[in-house]
Specification:
Layout: E1 10-12, H1 13-23, E2 28-31, H2 38-46, E3 50-53, H3 57-71, E4 75-80, H4 81-97, E5 102-108, H5 124-128, E6 134-137, H6 144-156, E7 163-168, H7 169-173, E8 175-177, H8 199-210, E9 215-219, H9 221-225, H10 229-239, E10 243-245, E11 260-263, H11 270-278, E12 281-285, E13 305-310, E14 322-325, H12 328-339, E15 342-343, H13 346-366, H14 381-391, E16 397-400, H15 406-412, E17 421-422, H16 432-442, E18 448-453, H17 454-460, H18 464-469, E19 474-480, H19 485-493, H20 509-515, E20 519-523, H21 526-538, E21 543-548, H22 559-565, H23 582-585, E22 630-631
Parallel strand pairs: 2-3, 2-4, 4-5, 5-7, 6-7, 9-10, 9-12, 10-11, 12-13, 13-14, 15-22, 16-17, 16-18, 18-19, 19-21, 20-21
Antiparallel strand pairs: 1-8
Helix pairs in contact: 1-2, 1-6, 3-4, 3-16, 8-12, 10-12, 14-21
Bound molecules: thiamine diphosphate (TPP) and magnesium ion (MG).
Residues 403, 453-455, 481, 483-485 line the site of magnesium ion.
């Protein structure tokens, strides 16, 4: 049902906002409701937009961010007044870092009470202006429609990002003219920089790569948002330039492609950083060159010739040689057109190909994460990672939390197509489970797998109940080392010893899962992991696999050497291994399906051949315009 468009018809502001969101392509909204947003919820229900109740507004915002990252369409989270907005803040901060088009709508106190420290009053616009792309209060009901249109545009245009609308309670229920019939229909966050990029700049970039000896492409979220993975593959193949993914954007390029060299940032092998430093030409495509991606702003290194193509190029102190403010898709289209008429020198191409083979062999060697012998205590984090890679369906969507456990997956998992990995470059703990919920609600039929530490998971684990209620098909892996491990490691590095405010008590996460209606299984050894994973995949409800870890495992980089450095046997420290007693670990309410399935004797290759990185939403490429041949040499 949509709003009546009879001349003179009136609707509430809540209904008008819902209508505008529906026209912008919003299908789902996440909230912890409050009295001040009820008119909006009624409007959303009338427009058949699914409203999901979360257990915390932070989770609601993470869920919306995940939907926005995955679909490129605006996604909505809703909270009430100062309290709801404060809880939403972490997700809006993350959405800003991740360039995700999230629209937060927050109920405000009545207009006549503003400025009197009314119940839960907060100056939302002032509070959120530094966090979101645009924050605004709807003061005049008559402006609601225009403001919503502007908010959708702000969230989706240019570099996408979150916006916040504050709506006083009286404004929400005020009657206004029904939205105009011919209102523009804001679509997905496809950039508006669709105009042909300056051909001179495109050629300069091509020459920069062609003339280099060790060129590289660093690809980020801008490639994902422009749905340009296939085009990037073609471009990299034509130029024979390898590709590195920016931090937490590992699905930007098919990881099994011979030109893929890994993901930068936390968890990257030293060899990848060395390769980035060694590059004599770097093309940065749709990446902000954030602190983590650049190893603390060390990339691009001094003296490197580099170019940046981005909707809103940020540059860096040394400045790129070529800056192109453009959508990645339009750049790649124009570049490919030029390359279609370019001639490459055969011997140079051969040299480049040979170097690429060596680089790729380096990537293969550096991403082995399960080589060491290990018989416990607890599961081997690398073996967990490789088992996931082997057993999960190839179109599973992996989400990750913050923490040391995540470095193993960052190094060892391989992604075959876009939209299979959701992580936040803001590094918020508590992200993985809500992001997994958002992901499978946006992509029904897919399996989401959330990776979290015991610290991060506990921050949002109440939303397991949300997953159960919403029938979200997901599995959460909780890597339990009984500590805020990443920070403990920092304490060790400072020489002050670990443990101050970083030691955590035991939680029986499998029992928590069962208490929320999910399947909960505890994994104490490597051998127990695969059967438990298979059981979780087959389960008809969300599942939690509580992985008991030896806390001496820290990052993938430290690996077993870290264990050796930790010295004393783990048994010597009774508090070192999370104390989940076998007798109490199994939930008493375990269902018949809880018995782990024996692994088949001969293990079939479960992961189907990765589907090609097709992006159905991609607009067909225009036929290349006839152009004269251009010589592009590859040195
Ligand atoms: C909301 C939030 N608070 C604090 C931090 C700082 N922080 C980063 S990692 C980490 C520890 C995470 O512990 P856990 O989830 O158990 O993972 P582990 O490092 O032990 O593998 C902390 C506290 C953060 N990133 N996010
Ligand atoms: Mg931990």
């Amino acid at each position: 049902m949509s709003i009546s468009e009879e001349p003179g018809a009136t609707v509430t502001v809540g209904a008008a906002l819902a209508e505008g969101l529906a026209r912008a392509g919003v299908k789902i909204a996440f909230t912890v409701p409050g009295e001040s947003v009820l008119g909006l919820l009624e409007g959303l229900a009338a427009r058949r937009i699914r409203v999901v109740a979360a257990r915390h507004e932070g989770s609601a915002a993470f869920m919306a961010e995940s939907v926005a990252q995955l679909t490129g369409r605006p996604a909505v989270c809703i909270g009430t007044r100062g309290v709801g907005a404060s809880n939403l803040a972490i997700g809006l901060h993350a959405a800003r870092a991740d360039s995700a088009p999230v629209i937060a709508i927050v109920g405000q106190v009545r207009s006549d009470l503003r400025g009197r420290e009314a119940f839960q009053e907060m100056d939302l616009v002032r509070a959120f202006e530094p966090i979101v792309k645009w924050a605004v209060e709807i003061k005049d009901p008559g402006e609601a429609w225009a403001i919503l249109e502007r908010a959708v545009a702000a969230a989706t245009r240019g570099r996408p990002g979150p916006v916040l609308l504050s709506v006083p309670a009286d404004v929400m229920d005020a009657l206004v003219a029904a939205p105009p019939i011919a209102a523009t229909k804001p679509g997905a966050s496809r950039p508006e920089h669709q105009a042909e990029p300056d051909p001179t700049l495109v050629r300069k970039i091509l020459h920069l790569l062609a003339d280099a000896r060790r060129p590289l492409i660093l690809a980020g979220a801008g490639v994902l948002r422009a749905r340009s993975t296939d085009a990037l593959v073609r471009f990299a193949e034509t130029m024979r330039v390898p590709v590195v993914a920016s931090w937490r954007r590992a699905d930007v390029f098919p990881n099994d492609h011979p030109l893929y060299l890994g993901m930068t940032g936390n968890g990257a092998p030293a060899s990848l950083r060395a390769r980035l430093e060694e590059a004599d030409a770097l093309l940065v495509l749709g990446s902000r060159l954030g602190e983590m991606t650049t190893f603390g702003y060390q990339i691009p290194g001094p003296g490197v010739r580099w170019a940046q193509v981005d909707m809103e190029p940020r540059g860096a102190p040394d400045g790129p040689e070529v800056v192109l403010a453009a959508d990645v898709a339009t750049f790649l289209r124009s570049a490919q057109r030029v390359l279609g008429h370019a001639a490459f020198e055969a011997t140079s191409l051969d040299e480049r190909t040979a170097a690429n083979v060596v680089d790729r062999a380096g990537y293969e060697a550096a991403t082995v994460v399960d080589a060491e012998a290990w018989d416990g205590p607890g599961a081997h984090p690398g073996r967990v990672t490789t088992t996931l890679a082997r057993v999960l369906p190839a179109d599973s969507i992996i989400t990750t939390d913050a923490g040391d456990f995540g470095t193993w997956a960052a190094r060892g998992l391989r992604f075959h197509r876009p939209g299979t990995f959701i992580g936040s470059t803001a590094g918020p703990m508590g992200f993985a489970l809500p992001a997994a919920i958002g992901a499978v609600l946006a992509r029904p039929g897919r399996l989401a797998v959330a990776l979290a530490g015991d610290g991060g998971f506990a921050m949002t684990m109440a939303d397991l109940e949300t997953a159960v209620r919403e029938r979200a098909r997901l599995i959460t892996l909780v890597f339990d080392n009984g500590r805020y491990g990443a920070i403990w490691r920092d304490q060790d590095r400072r020489g002050t010893g670990g443990g101050m405010a970083t030691r955590l008590g035991a939680v029986d996460f499998a029992a928590v899962a069962e208490a929320c209606g999910a399947l909960g299984l505890t994994v104490r050894t490597d051998d127990e992991f695969e059967p438990a994973l298979r059981q979780a995949i087959e389960a008809s409800r969300p599942a939690v696999l509580h992985l008991i870890m030896d806390p001496r495992w820290t990052t993938v980089e430290a690996g077993l050497a870290g264990i050796a450095a930790a010295g004393a046997a783990v048994e010597a420290d009774p508090e070192a291994v999370p104390a989940t007693e076998p007798e109490t670990a199994e939930p008493e309410t375990a269902e018949p399906e809880a018995a782990p399935e024996p692994a088949p004797a001969t293990e079939p290759e479960l992961a189907p051949e990765p589907a090609p990185a097709t992006e159905p939403e991609l607009a067909p490429e225009p036929a290349p315009a006839a152009e004269s041949a251009e010589a592009v040499s590859v040195a």
